[in-house]
């Protein structure tokens, strides 16, 4: 019987999953899944840029990421605004020398209420945040992703886009769109 060499799983994982030399944009990276994605990408060596509407949360997260040694830059952006989306991509292009490897369309919002109680403003907010921003940011980032020769776009969806979940019909529609 031959002996089995012991493998150090941490070094194997790090070498197999290295993102050293890659760049990433994560929308909505200060909370929840977005925050976890920013940290995981940075942990694997990617240089990450993230955005949020809340400058105080961005600065708090940036400080924590700096303490961890992560290479993360931040900017304030309301993704419901087409001009702010354009400004975000211009910033990312400048920071990453015109190249982007990974776009994570994470940002999302919801207002839970019965379908008959939604107002036009609710529809507009949820659609522009969850669907329109992801679509437009994907379009805007296309030249940067193409320039990297290894571009990926990730859309964060939800089970509510596939099965009936009591979270609101507009939210479910936006998540089914991916």
TrEMBL record:
One of its GO terms (molecular function) is oxidoreductase activity. Keywords: NADP, Oxidoreductase. This is Tropinone reductase homolog At1g07440-like isoform X2. The lineage of its organism: Eukaryota, Viridiplantae, Streptophyta, Embryophyta, Tracheophyta. The gene is LOC108998463. It comes from Juglans regia (English walnut). InterPro entries: NAD(P)-bd_dom_sf, SDR_fam, TR. It holds the Pfam family adh_short. Belongs to the short-chain dehydrogenases/reductases (SDR) family. SDR65C subfamily.
């Amino acid at each position: 019987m031959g002996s089995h060499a012991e493998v150090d799983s941490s070094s194997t994982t790090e070498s197999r999953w290295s993102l050293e030399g890659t760049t990433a944009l994560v929308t909505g990276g200060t909370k929840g899944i977005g925050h976890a994605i920013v940290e995981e990408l940075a942990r694997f060596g990617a240089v990450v840029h993230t955005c949020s509407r809340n400058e105080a949360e961005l600065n708090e997260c940036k400080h924590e990421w700096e303490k961890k040694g992560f290479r993360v830059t931040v900017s304030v952006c309301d993704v419901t605004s087409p001009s702010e989306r354009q400004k975000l991509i211009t910033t990312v292009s400048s920071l990453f020398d015109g190249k982007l490897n990974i776009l994570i369309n994470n940002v999302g919002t919801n207002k839970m209420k019965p379908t008959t109680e939604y107002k036009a403003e609710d529809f507009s907010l949820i659609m522009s945040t969850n669907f329109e921003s992801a679509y437009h940011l994907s379009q805007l980032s296309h030249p940067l992703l193409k320039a990297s020769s290894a571009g990926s776009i990730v859309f964060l969806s939800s089970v509510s886009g596939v099965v009936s979940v009591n979270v609101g019909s507009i939210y479910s529609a936006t998540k089914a769109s991916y």
